[in-house]
């Protein structure tokens, strides 16, 4: 009995040991409630679309290249020159008064005197365009007026806004100094290409001038 009793007392935990185990359990419970694993934050991939800006067309420095490139780029331009409509749907022009004539476009006439025109910068070359030439083409719609002496054209298709006026002239190489003799009306207008300075403003004027013979 004593032996067995001694065995029982040896197997029972002491009071201080029980307190230590309870404190350890409380610490484990507190630690367990605090050590919660957090899920990684979701990330969203974003992409930015990049739109390439088309390069401006560089036309030839000719009476045809200037308006064609200007119209194709929707840019300001001014040009004076000559073109020849052959009566069979083809348009011809020269780079200057000494250069050969090249085909620069085509046209289609309708019975109501309207006309569809396509003009191409056939004079664009690597020398004038700096790179491989881009021979720009522009389309126009118009009408024959002034008893066939004038064609008024308005740009159609891509771009838009350019206006061309074709007026019949003397035969190519048929003009000399005396052909300009006479009295002419003068009408002038200006386009502001920069901000006015001080009190400057666009000016228009009209008058009569006379050339001697």
Query: Major β-sheet, in short?
Result: 7 strands, antiparallel
Number of helices: 4
Rg is 44 Å
The overall strand count is 9
Class inferred from helices and paired strands:
alpha+beta
> What is the beta-strand fraction?
25-35%
Spatially, the strands of the biggest sheet line up as: 1-2-3-4-5-6-7
Low-confidence stretches: 1-11
What's the shape?
A: elongated
Listing every helix as H and every strand as E from the N terminus to the C terminus, the arrangement reads HHHEEEEHEEEEE
Average pLDDT taken over every residue? 74
Report the helical percentage: 10-25%
Alpha-carbon distance between the termini? 158 Å
Give the structure's gist in a few sentences:
With 213 residues, this protein is an alpha+beta fold.
What does this 3D model show about the protein?
The protein has 213 residues and is of the alpha+beta class. It has a domain at 65-182. Helices cover 20% and strands 27% of the residues. The chain contains 4 helices and 9 strands. It has helices at residues 2-11, 15-34, 65-72, 126-129; strands at residues 84-85, 90-94, 101-109, 114-120, 137-145, 150-156, 163-167, 182-188, 205-211. Strands 1-2-3-4-5-6-7 form a 7-stranded antiparallel β-sheet. It has a two-stranded antiparallel sheet with strand order 8-9. A hairpin with a 4-residue loop joins strand 3 (101-109) and strand 4. The longest helix has 20 residues, at 15-34. The chain is elongated, with a radius of gyration of 44 Å. The termini are far apart. The model is unreliable at 1-11 (pLDDT under 50).
